[in-house]
Amino acid sequence: MKKNIGLLIVVLLVAVMIGTYVKQQIDKDREIETTSLGKEMDERKIGLSNGDTPPDFTLTSLDGKNVTLSELRGKKVVLNFWATWCPPCKAEMPHMQNYYEQYAKKDNVEIIAVNLTSEERDVTADAKIDSVMTFRDSFDLTFPILLDQDPKNSIGIAYQILTIPTTYFIDSNGYIQRAIKGPMNVEMLKKYVDALD
Amino acid sequence: MNNTEWFSIRALTLPATAVALLVAFFIVWLVLRVQFSKKWAGVYGDAVFTFIVVWKFSIIVTDFKVVIAQPFSLLYFNGGTIGVLLGVMAASLQLWWKRQQFQFDATGVAACSWAIILTQSIYQWLVVLLNDNQTTSEVITLFVLSTLTVIILWKMTAINRALFLYTSGFMIVALFQPYGLWQPAVGVSVILLILGLVIQRFAGTPK
After folding, report:
1. Which residues, including other chains, have CB under 8 Å from residue A116's CB and lie 6 or more apart?
2. A187 pLDDT exceeds 90?
3. Are strands A76-82 and A109-115 parallel, antiparallel or unpaired?
Protein backbone atom coordinates (compact mmCIF):
# COMPACT_ATOMS: atom_id res chain seq x y z
CA MET A 1 0.00 0.00 0.00
CA LYS A 2 2.71 2.38 1.03
CA LYS A 3 4.44 2.02 -2.30
CA ASN A 4 1.43 3.47 -4.04
CA ILE A 5 1.20 6.76 -2.15
CA GLY A 6 4.44 8.20 -3.51
CA LEU A 7 3.74 6.93 -6.99
CA LEU A 8 0.23 8.37 -6.80
CA ILE A 9 1.69 11.77 -5.96
CA VAL A 10 4.06 11.51 -8.91
CA VAL A 11 1.25 10.57 -11.30
CA LEU A 12 -0.86 13.44 -9.93
CA LEU A 13 2.06 15.81 -10.44
CA VAL A 14 2.42 14.67 -14.03
CA ALA A 15 -1.30 15.22 -14.59
CA VAL A 16 -1.14 18.71 -13.07
CA MET A 17 1.95 19.63 -15.11
CA ILE A 18 0.43 18.48 -18.38
CA GLY A 19 -2.90 20.15 -17.58
CA THR A 20 -1.16 23.44 -16.78
CA TYR A 21 0.92 23.21 -19.94
CA VAL A 22 -2.08 22.55 -22.18
CA LYS A 23 -3.92 25.45 -20.57
CA GLN A 24 -0.92 27.72 -21.12
CA GLN A 25 -0.79 26.77 -24.80
CA ILE A 26 -4.52 27.37 -25.28
CA ASP A 27 -4.25 30.78 -23.61
CA LYS A 28 -1.29 31.63 -25.83
CA ASP A 29 -3.22 30.66 -28.96
CA ARG A 30 -6.13 32.87 -27.89
CA GLU A 31 -3.75 35.76 -27.31
CA ILE A 32 -2.35 35.38 -30.82
CA GLU A 33 -5.89 35.27 -32.24
CA THR A 34 -6.91 38.48 -30.52
CA THR A 35 -3.75 40.29 -31.57
CA SER A 36 -4.21 39.17 -35.16
CA LEU A 37 -7.73 40.59 -35.01
CA GLY A 38 -6.07 43.90 -34.30
CA LYS A 39 -7.61 44.37 -30.88
CA GLU A 40 -4.29 44.75 -29.11
CA MET A 41 -2.38 46.41 -31.86
CA ASP A 42 -2.72 49.91 -30.46
CA GLU A 43 0.36 51.96 -29.72
CA ARG A 44 2.54 50.64 -26.92
CA LYS A 45 2.42 52.84 -23.87
CA ILE A 46 5.24 54.54 -22.05
CA GLY A 47 5.91 52.78 -18.79
CA LEU A 48 8.14 50.39 -16.93
CA SER A 49 6.38 47.05 -17.39
CA ASN A 50 7.59 44.43 -19.82
CA GLY A 51 6.70 45.48 -23.37
CA ASP A 52 6.42 49.18 -22.52
CA THR A 53 8.51 51.96 -24.06
CA PRO A 54 10.74 53.30 -21.27
CA PRO A 55 10.55 57.02 -20.40
CA ASP A 56 12.97 58.83 -22.68
CA PHE A 57 15.80 61.03 -21.39
CA THR A 58 18.85 62.94 -22.52
CA LEU A 59 21.75 63.03 -20.09
CA THR A 60 25.35 64.16 -20.21
CA SER A 61 28.01 61.54 -19.83
CA LEU A 62 31.18 61.86 -17.75
CA ASP A 63 33.00 62.62 -21.01
CA GLY A 64 30.63 65.49 -21.74
CA LYS A 65 28.64 63.83 -24.51
CA ASN A 66 24.86 63.98 -24.64
CA VAL A 67 23.16 60.60 -24.81
CA THR A 68 19.47 60.17 -25.64
CA LEU A 69 17.94 56.81 -24.86
CA SER A 70 15.54 56.73 -27.82
CA GLU A 71 18.42 57.30 -30.23
CA LEU A 72 19.89 53.94 -29.27
CA ARG A 73 17.02 52.09 -30.92
CA GLY A 74 18.37 49.32 -33.12
CA LYS A 75 20.74 48.28 -30.36
CA LYS A 76 19.96 46.27 -27.29
CA VAL A 77 20.39 48.46 -24.22
CA VAL A 78 21.39 47.49 -20.72
CA LEU A 79 20.21 50.45 -18.64
CA ASN A 80 21.81 50.33 -15.22
CA PHE A 81 21.17 52.68 -12.29
CA TRP A 82 23.86 52.97 -9.63
CA ALA A 83 25.73 55.12 -7.12
CA THR A 84 29.34 55.01 -5.91
CA TRP A 85 28.46 54.34 -2.27
CA CYS A 86 26.38 51.25 -2.98
CA PRO A 87 28.26 47.99 -2.21
CA PRO A 88 26.35 45.73 -4.63
CA CYS A 89 26.95 48.30 -7.40
CA LYS A 90 30.66 48.09 -6.65
CA ALA A 91 30.52 44.33 -6.79
CA GLU A 92 28.71 44.46 -10.10
CA MET A 93 30.82 47.00 -11.98
CA PRO A 94 33.86 44.80 -12.79
CA HIS A 95 31.45 42.22 -14.25
CA MET A 96 29.71 44.88 -16.34
CA GLN A 97 33.09 45.97 -17.66
CA ASN A 98 34.14 42.37 -18.47
CA TYR A 99 30.86 41.79 -20.23
CA TYR A 100 31.25 45.03 -22.15
CA GLU A 101 34.73 44.09 -23.33
CA GLN A 102 33.87 40.53 -24.26
CA TYR A 103 30.39 40.67 -25.73
CA ALA A 104 29.05 44.20 -26.29
CA LYS A 105 30.10 44.41 -29.93
CA LYS A 106 29.26 40.81 -30.77
CA ASP A 107 25.82 40.96 -29.18
CA ASN A 108 25.04 44.49 -30.45
CA VAL A 109 24.56 45.82 -26.94
CA GLU A 110 25.15 49.20 -25.36
CA ILE A 111 25.57 49.50 -21.63
CA ILE A 112 24.26 52.77 -20.22
CA ALA A 113 25.13 53.27 -16.57
CA VAL A 114 23.12 56.12 -15.08
CA ASN A 115 24.77 57.41 -11.95
CA LEU A 116 22.26 58.89 -9.50
CA THR A 117 24.58 61.84 -9.05
CA SER A 118 22.26 63.90 -6.90
CA GLU A 119 22.17 60.97 -4.48
CA GLU A 120 25.94 60.87 -4.15
CA ARG A 121 27.11 61.70 -0.65
CA ASP A 122 29.42 64.62 -1.34
CA VAL A 123 28.39 68.17 -0.54
CA THR A 124 29.05 70.11 -3.75
CA ALA A 125 28.06 69.15 -7.27
CA ASP A 126 31.70 69.15 -8.39
CA ALA A 127 32.75 66.86 -5.57
CA LYS A 128 29.99 64.47 -6.59
CA ILE A 129 31.25 64.32 -10.16
CA ASP A 130 34.79 63.89 -8.86
CA SER A 131 33.85 60.83 -6.87
CA VAL A 132 32.11 59.32 -9.90
CA MET A 133 35.27 59.93 -11.93
CA THR A 134 37.49 58.38 -9.28
CA PHE A 135 35.14 55.41 -9.21
CA ARG A 136 35.24 55.01 -12.97
CA ASP A 137 39.02 55.21 -13.07
CA SER A 138 39.51 52.75 -10.24
CA PHE A 139 37.43 50.16 -12.10
CA ASP A 140 38.69 51.12 -15.58
CA LEU A 141 35.14 51.42 -16.88
CA THR A 142 34.83 52.13 -20.59
CA PHE A 143 31.05 52.10 -21.15
CA PRO A 144 29.22 55.46 -21.01
CA ILE A 145 28.38 56.70 -17.54
CA LEU A 146 25.58 59.23 -17.50
CA LEU A 147 25.04 61.72 -14.72
CA ASP A 148 21.57 62.37 -13.36
CA GLN A 149 22.36 65.68 -11.70
CA ASP A 150 18.82 66.89 -11.24
CA PRO A 151 18.49 67.66 -7.50
CA LYS A 152 14.95 66.31 -7.69
CA ASN A 153 16.35 63.03 -9.01
CA SER A 154 13.73 63.10 -11.78
CA ILE A 155 15.05 60.17 -13.81
CA GLY A 156 15.51 57.96 -10.79
CA ILE A 157 11.88 58.70 -9.95
CA ALA A 158 10.64 58.19 -13.52
CA TYR A 159 12.24 54.74 -13.47
CA GLN A 160 11.02 54.04 -9.92
CA ILE A 161 14.48 53.25 -8.66
CA LEU A 162 14.03 52.17 -5.04
CA THR A 163 16.91 49.76 -4.74
CA ILE A 164 20.21 50.04 -6.55
CA PRO A 165 21.55 48.55 -8.65
CA THR A 166 18.45 48.21 -10.81
CA THR A 167 18.92 47.27 -14.45
CA TYR A 168 16.44 47.49 -17.30
CA PHE A 169 16.95 45.31 -20.37
CA ILE A 170 15.63 47.06 -23.48
CA ASP A 171 15.36 45.21 -26.79
CA SER A 172 16.49 46.57 -30.14
CA ASN A 173 12.95 47.83 -30.85
CA GLY A 174 13.18 50.02 -27.79
CA TYR A 175 10.80 48.06 -25.54
CA ILE A 176 11.53 47.05 -21.97
CA GLN A 177 11.85 43.30 -21.68
CA ARG A 178 13.01 42.87 -18.13
CA ALA A 179 13.90 44.75 -14.96
CA ILE A 180 16.44 43.18 -12.66
CA LYS A 181 17.09 44.32 -9.11
CA GLY A 182 20.39 43.39 -7.53
CA PRO A 183 23.89 42.84 -8.88
CA MET A 184 24.70 40.63 -11.86
CA ASN A 185 27.82 38.84 -13.01
CA VAL A 186 28.98 38.24 -16.58
CA GLU A 187 27.14 34.94 -16.88
CA MET A 188 23.85 36.51 -15.78
CA LEU A 189 24.27 39.54 -18.03
CA LYS A 190 24.93 37.28 -20.98
CA LYS A 191 21.82 35.22 -20.24
CA TYR A 192 19.57 38.25 -19.88
CA VAL A 193 20.87 39.87 -23.07
CA ASP A 194 20.54 36.61 -25.01
CA ALA A 195 16.88 36.49 -24.02
CA LEU A 196 16.32 39.92 -25.68
CA ASP A 197 15.03 40.32 -29.24
CA MET B 1 15.95 25.07 -21.88
CA ASN B 2 16.38 28.81 -22.15
CA ASN B 3 15.52 30.75 -19.09
CA THR B 4 13.10 33.48 -20.16
CA GLU B 5 11.41 34.45 -16.90
CA TRP B 6 12.64 35.97 -13.67
CA PHE B 7 10.98 36.41 -10.30
CA SER B 8 11.52 39.44 -8.11
CA ILE B 9 11.27 39.20 -4.36
CA ARG B 10 12.03 42.61 -2.94
CA ALA B 11 15.66 43.42 -3.80
CA LEU B 12 16.38 39.93 -5.07
CA THR B 13 15.81 38.69 -8.60
CA LEU B 14 15.79 34.93 -9.13
CA PRO B 15 15.80 33.25 -12.54
CA ALA B 16 12.96 30.82 -13.13
CA THR B 17 15.45 27.93 -13.21
CA ALA B 18 16.49 28.62 -9.61
CA VAL B 19 12.85 28.81 -8.53
CA ALA B 20 12.15 25.53 -10.36
CA LEU B 21 15.06 23.83 -8.60
CA LEU B 22 14.01 25.01 -5.13
CA VAL B 23 10.42 23.89 -5.68
CA ALA B 24 11.64 20.55 -7.08
CA PHE B 25 13.80 19.98 -3.99
CA PHE B 26 10.82 20.57 -1.74
CA ILE B 27 8.44 18.30 -3.67
CA VAL B 28 11.00 15.48 -3.84
CA TRP B 29 11.67 15.80 -0.13
CA LEU B 30 7.93 15.50 0.47
CA VAL B 31 7.59 12.46 -1.80
CA LEU B 32 10.54 10.72 -0.13
CA ARG B 33 9.01 11.44 3.26
CA VAL B 34 5.71 9.84 2.27
CA GLN B 35 7.08 6.98 0.18
CA PHE B 36 10.06 5.94 2.31
CA SER B 37 10.90 7.28 5.74
CA LYS B 38 12.00 10.31 7.68
CA LYS B 39 15.55 9.00 7.51
CA TRP B 40 15.86 9.06 3.73
CA ALA B 41 14.07 12.39 3.41
CA GLY B 42 16.63 13.69 5.92
CA VAL B 43 19.55 12.27 3.93
CA TYR B 44 18.13 13.98 0.84
CA GLY B 45 17.77 17.25 2.75
CA ASP B 46 21.44 17.07 3.80
CA ALA B 47 22.56 16.45 0.24
CA VAL B 48 20.48 19.41 -0.98
CA PHE B 49 21.98 21.60 1.72
CA THR B 50 25.52 20.63 0.71
CA PHE B 51 24.66 21.31 -2.93
CA ILE B 52 23.32 24.79 -2.21
CA VAL B 53 26.24 25.77 0.05
CA VAL B 54 28.91 24.54 -2.39
CA TRP B 55 27.12 26.10 -5.37
CA LYS B 56 26.85 29.44 -3.59
CA PHE B 57 30.42 29.60 -2.33
CA SER B 58 32.04 28.01 -5.37
CA ILE B 59 32.55 31.53 -6.71
CA ILE B 60 35.71 31.44 -4.55
CA VAL B 61 37.04 28.82 -6.97
CA THR B 62 35.52 30.12 -10.21
CA ASP B 63 36.27 33.80 -9.69
CA PHE B 64 39.00 33.96 -7.07
CA LYS B 65 40.35 37.35 -8.16
CA VAL B 66 36.98 39.05 -7.93
CA VAL B 67 36.32 37.65 -4.46
CA ILE B 68 39.68 38.91 -3.20
CA ALA B 69 39.15 42.35 -4.75
CA GLN B 70 35.47 42.52 -3.74
CA PRO B 71 34.67 40.27 -0.78
CA PHE B 72 31.08 41.45 -1.13
CA SER B 73 30.83 39.32 -4.25
CA LEU B 74 30.41 36.27 -2.00
CA LEU B 75 27.13 37.71 -0.85
CA TYR B 76 25.76 38.57 -4.27
CA PHE B 77 27.02 35.96 -6.69
CA ASN B 78 27.33 32.20 -7.03
CA GLY B 79 29.52 29.80 -8.93
CA GLY B 80 27.29 29.64 -12.02
CA THR B 81 27.45 26.53 -14.20
CA ILE B 82 30.71 25.24 -12.77
CA GLY B 83 29.27 25.87 -9.32
CA VAL B 84 26.28 23.68 -10.10
CA LEU B 85 28.52 20.81 -11.20
CA LEU B 86 30.80 21.25 -8.15
CA GLY B 87 27.74 21.30 -5.91
CA VAL B 88 26.40 18.05 -7.33
CA MET B 89 29.81 16.43 -7.01
CA ALA B 90 30.17 17.59 -3.42
CA ALA B 91 26.73 16.27 -2.50
CA SER B 92 27.54 12.94 -4.21
CA LEU B 93 30.89 12.63 -2.43
CA GLN B 94 29.21 13.40 0.85
CA LEU B 95 26.77 10.52 0.35
CA TRP B 96 29.63 8.23 -0.56
CA TRP B 97 31.73 9.19 2.45
CA LYS B 98 28.82 8.66 4.78
CA ARG B 99 27.72 5.39 3.20
CA GLN B 100 28.66 3.40 6.35
CA GLN B 101 26.65 5.69 8.54
CA PHE B 102 23.59 5.69 6.30
CA GLN B 103 23.73 1.94 5.59
CA PHE B 104 22.08 1.82 2.21
CA ASP B 105 19.69 -1.14 2.35
CA ALA B 106 17.17 -2.03 -0.34
CA THR B 107 14.92 0.85 0.77
CA GLY B 108 17.82 3.27 0.78
CA VAL B 109 18.84 2.34 -2.74
CA ALA B 110 15.24 2.70 -3.94
CA ALA B 111 14.96 6.08 -2.20
CA CYS B 112 18.19 7.15 -3.88
CA SER B 113 16.88 6.14 -7.29
CA TRP B 114 13.60 7.98 -6.69
CA ALA B 115 15.41 11.09 -5.51
CA ILE B 116 17.79 11.16 -8.48
CA ILE B 117 15.06 10.66 -11.07
CA LEU B 118 12.37 12.84 -9.51
CA THR B 119 14.60 15.82 -8.81
CA GLN B 120 15.63 15.95 -12.46
CA SER B 121 12.14 15.35 -13.86
CA ILE B 122 10.29 17.80 -11.62
CA TYR B 123 12.95 20.42 -12.27
CA GLN B 124 12.60 19.96 -16.04
CA TRP B 125 8.80 20.07 -15.91
CA LEU B 126 8.85 23.27 -13.87
CA VAL B 127 11.41 24.90 -16.16
CA VAL B 128 9.12 24.14 -19.11
CA LEU B 129 6.06 25.53 -17.33
CA LEU B 130 7.75 28.67 -16.01
CA ASN B 131 9.56 29.65 -19.21
CA ASP B 132 8.63 30.23 -22.80
CA ASN B 133 10.59 28.05 -25.21
CA GLN B 134 10.06 26.36 -28.54
CA THR B 135 6.92 24.24 -28.41
CA THR B 136 8.53 21.07 -29.82
CA SER B 137 11.28 20.99 -27.22
CA GLU B 138 8.74 21.73 -24.48
CA VAL B 139 6.34 18.99 -25.53
CA ILE B 140 9.14 16.42 -25.93
CA THR B 141 10.57 17.30 -22.52
CA LEU B 142 7.22 17.00 -20.77
CA PHE B 143 6.06 13.88 -22.60
CA VAL B 144 9.25 11.78 -22.60
CA LEU B 145 10.31 12.62 -19.06
CA SER B 146 6.79 12.01 -17.66
CA THR B 147 6.52 8.63 -19.35
CA LEU B 148 10.04 7.59 -18.36
CA THR B 149 9.59 8.70 -14.77
CA VAL B 150 6.27 6.98 -14.19
CA ILE B 151 7.33 3.72 -15.87
CA ILE B 152 10.67 3.57 -14.10
CA LEU B 153 9.30 4.35 -10.65
CA TRP B 154 6.41 1.98 -11.13
CA LYS B 155 8.09 -1.05 -12.70
CA MET B 156 11.85 -0.98 -12.32
CA THR B 157 13.53 -1.96 -9.10
CA ALA B 158 17.14 -2.33 -10.29
CA ILE B 159 18.65 1.10 -9.79
CA ASN B 160 21.44 0.63 -12.32
CA ARG B 161 19.05 -0.20 -15.15
CA ALA B 162 16.61 2.48 -14.04
CA LEU B 163 19.23 5.22 -14.02
CA PHE B 164 20.86 4.10 -17.26
CA LEU B 165 17.50 4.20 -18.98
CA TYR B 166 16.65 7.56 -17.41
CA THR B 167 19.90 9.33 -18.24
CA SER B 168 19.96 8.05 -21.82
CA GLY B 169 16.30 9.06 -22.20
CA PHE B 170 17.13 12.47 -20.84
CA MET B 171 20.02 12.84 -23.28
CA ILE B 172 17.63 12.20 -26.17
CA VAL B 173 15.31 14.86 -24.72
CA ALA B 174 18.28 17.22 -24.36
CA LEU B 175 19.01 16.91 -28.07
CA PHE B 176 15.72 18.67 -28.70
CA GLN B 177 16.40 21.41 -26.14
CA PRO B 178 18.04 24.73 -27.08
CA TYR B 179 21.51 23.90 -25.72
CA GLY B 180 21.56 20.25 -26.80
CA LEU B 181 23.82 17.79 -25.02
CA TRP B 182 26.19 20.55 -24.00
CA GLN B 183 24.20 21.79 -21.02
CA PRO B 184 24.80 21.48 -17.29
CA ALA B 185 21.64 19.39 -16.75
CA VAL B 186 23.17 16.56 -18.83
CA GLY B 187 26.42 16.73 -16.88
CA VAL B 188 24.46 16.63 -13.64
CA SER B 189 22.48 13.65 -14.90
CA VAL B 190 25.69 11.73 -15.64
CA ILE B 191 27.21 12.52 -12.23
CA LEU B 192 24.01 11.36 -10.55
CA LEU B 193 24.02 8.18 -12.64
CA ILE B 194 27.53 7.41 -11.39
CA LEU B 195 26.43 8.19 -7.84
CA GLY B 196 23.52 5.76 -8.18
CA LEU B 197 25.77 3.00 -9.53
CA VAL B 198 28.31 3.48 -6.74
CA ILE B 199 25.64 3.46 -4.06
CA GLN B 200 24.14 0.28 -5.46
CA ARG B 201 27.56 -1.38 -5.37
CA PHE B 202 28.10 -0.50 -1.77
CA ALA B 203 24.61 -1.43 -0.71
CA GLY B 204 25.34 -5.08 -1.36
CA THR B 205 28.59 -5.25 0.58
CA PRO B 206 28.34 -5.92 4.33
CA LYS B 207 29.97 -3.28 6.47
Report:
1. A81, A82, A83, A148, A153, A156, A161, A164
2. no
3. parallel
Average pLDDT over residues A20-31: 85
Q: Where are the beta strands (DSSP E) in A49-142?
A: 58-61, 66-68, 76-82, 109-115
User: Of A3, A24, A88, which is closest to B76 when you measure between CB atoms?
Assistant: A88
- pTM for the whole structure: 0.81
Angle among Cα B41, B44, B45 to the nearest 5 degrees reads 85
* CB within 8 Å: A191 and B69: no
Identify the weakest region by mean pLDDT among A29-38, B35-44, B105-114, B135-144: A29-38
Choice between A107 and B10, residue whose per-residue pLDDT is larger: A107
Give the model's pLDDT for residue B204: 63
- Taking any CB pair shorter than 8 Å as contact, residues of chain B touching chain A are 2-4, 6, 8, 10-13, 15, 27, 30-32, 34-36, 63, 66, 69-70, 72-73, 75-77, 80-81, 114, 118, 122, 125, 128-129, 135, 138, 142, 146, 149-150, 153-154
| Residue A1 clears pLDDT 60, i.e. is over it | no
| Secondary structure of residue A145 in the 3-state scheme | strand
Cα(B26)–Cα(B15) distance, rounded to whole angstroms?
Answer: 17
**pLDDT score recorded for residue B207:** 41
Beta strands in B59-188 (DSSP E): none
* B12: number of Cβ within 10 Å: 11
DSSP state of A46: B
Distances from the Cα of B175 to the Cαs of A8, A18, B146, B158, B204, in angstroms? 30, 21, 17, 26, 35
Distance of CA B76 to CAs A42, B6, B10, Å? 40, 16, 14
Q: Is the pLDDT of residue A42 over 60?
A: no
Q: Phi and psi at residue B7, in whole multiples of 5°?
A: -115, 130
